[in-house]
Amino acid sequence: MTILEQILAVKKQEVTELKQTFDLAEHPRLTPICSFIERCQANDQLKVIAEFKRASPSKGTINAKLDPKEQAQIYQELGASMISVLTDRQFFQGSYQDLAQVKQTVELPILNKNFIIDEIQIDHAYSYGADLILLIVASLTEERLKQLYDHAKKLGLEVLVEVHDESELKAAQAIGAKLIGVNNRDLKTFKVDLAVTERLTQLINHDREILISESGLQTADDVARVKQAGAKAILVGETLMRSADLEKTFQDMLK
Ligand SMILES: O=P(O)(O)OC[C@@H](O)[C@@H](O)c1c[nH]c2ccccc12
């Protein structure tokens, strides 16, 4: 079994549990939804999506000591346009508590990073204050992708649709996705290659689709490369979570 298959098996169990324990009607959302798309449309500046990620299956523990509220506050002060919060417990050491705390701390859109396979997970994320959810094309059939996308939109959420190759990009475009995340990391092999962004950008309709380059970005050269390729935003996790001087790391990456 690949890691992705292992993760999806755990998600199936979580969905069964959630269906028994969680009901959106009993946990209404209290905060309005904060749009990322509007921020992207406001100006041409490259947007930074800063991620809170304690661990990952490919890297193990990245940084288990950081407090999500403090980290999110610093991300906001340094100019991040959105915060991404991993909420998977088993593989990424995250939680919905982290998400709720980040949402309470900052005035930025919050992206819930998880492996969504069922509507109940979307309801749950919505209830905890997520403004955007992630849908990973590689882990869904085209039919489920469309159903989950429509469910999220009905709640008023924005959806980041993640792709890694041409056929996945086609599937994202077929459902009308506006926010397209090109993951430079292959979720099956964990290999990172920024050429994935450079390849897929050519198939994107940049007038109506927003390209977000995700994963493996470390240096100013990396950032310049995906920006040059047409990325409107970058999603950075590990580099920020390992940084001992976030101000310098932001400056270094964006110079
Ligand atoms: O830590 P990195 O290499 O900067 O990557 C961040 C982000 O792109 C990565 O965490 C990610 C991209 N797609 C995902 C899907 C699920 C979990 C995590 C991810």
Automatic annotation (TrEMBL):
Cited CDD domains: IGPS
Known pathway: Amino-acid biosynthesis; L-tryptophan biosynthesis; L-tryptophan from chorismate: step 4/5
EC number: 4.1.1.48
Key words, A-Z: Amino-acid biosynthesis, Aromatic amino acid biosynthesis, Decarboxylase, Lyase, Tryptophan biosynthesis
One Pfam family of this chain: IGPS
Domain called Indole-3-glycerol phosphate synthase: residue spans: 4-251
Reaction(s) catalysed by this chain's protein: 1-(2-carboxyphenylamino)-1-deoxy-D-ribulose 5-phosphate + H(+) = (1S,2R)-1-C-(indol-3-yl)glycerol 3-phosphate + CO2 + H2O
Family, similarity comment: Belongs to the TrpC family.
Entries under PANTHER family matching the protein: INDOLE-3-GLYCEROL-PHOSPHATE SYNTHASE, TRYPTOPHAN BIOSYNTHESIS PROTEIN
Protein name: Indole-3-glycerol phosphate synthase
Gene: trpC
